[in-house]
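User: hey, got a sec? need Efflux transporter periplasmic adaptor subunit folded
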Amino acid sequence: MKNTQFAFLVLTVFTASCTPEKAPEKKTDTYQVVSPLVKDASYTSEYVAEIQSVRYVEVRSKIKGFIEKNFVDEGQSVKKGQLLFTLSFSEFEKELQKADADHKATLADLKASEVELNNVKRLVEKNIVSQPELDVLQAKANALRAKVEEAVANKEQVALHLSFAQIKAPYDGIINRIPHKMGSLVEEGDMLTSISDNREIFAYFNLSEIDYLNYISNGEKKAQNVSLKLANNEMYPHPGKIETIESEFDRETGNIAFRARFPNPDAILKHGANGKIIIDKVLKNALIIPQKATFEIQDQLYVFVVDKDNTLKQRNIVTKMRFTDFYAVESGLTKDEKIVFEGVENAKDGGKIEAVEVDLAKAMSSVEHD
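Assistant: Yep! Here you go:
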């Protein structure tokens, strides 16, 4: 009896030890998932700008002569019509005196001729003098009238040259560099200085053909407000407006020029300076996804799309624009699909997950406030 019980016990133990253990169930990883967000995305673009005065002119000598006197200094403000320089003009004064004398002489000859002509006319009427003699005197008077006109033109020409010896400001502005000092000999056409009217300035900048077409297609107006970043990366305090766009593209660069106008009440901006135009833009109805939901493989961008069975599918996407924390997707994804939000570095193509949906709009708002 005891042997039977022992055998039964051994058989029971042996049977229990041979029964296979049940394998533990594999745990499903949990991932946060989001749907792309469709919204207008604001962004800015920067363009190198060349700053020019609204009015800028080079003051040049119209005659040859010595600078007799300089009435202004570099950096000085001047008014329209203010005398800037005088050139030696004694030679022109003598020429003007001679031209004036010639004019008076020819005028006297004309008057004498006209008196003689009137006398002969009366004699012809009395048949004392013949008609041919009258015709000769008439021709002589006509020639003298032409000489008077020539003398007047010569006198005006000399007077004009004399006025060129006095150089005046064409408008209110600031005197720039003065290369020739008092006593210097200047030739006709030499630059004496330049004058800048800096009360307002123009900023010229170029857009590529693509940027230009996007600008136009977005319905932007020419008078759009723009900002200016100075060379020291500080923002200019006064906004400007785009005024005009050139009518053709530069064939060498493929760019087209824009012009913006800025007020300059503090005279900070100077002719010839550089800066950057900042234009605020809006990407309409952009398909937005977070950057941390993406990963790169050989310079290609991918996301993990979650199908209806919560299975991960690796998919290549093409982006239109990159923002600070987000991408605007151009193709490869739709607004109704779901993608892994965080932890893409641990996810695997074809893997099954437990999906926890997150509101992307709220997630974006929290990032922006941070």
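Quick note: Confidence is low (pLDDT under 50) at residues 1-17. Let me know if you need anything else on Efflux transporter periplasmic adaptor subunit.
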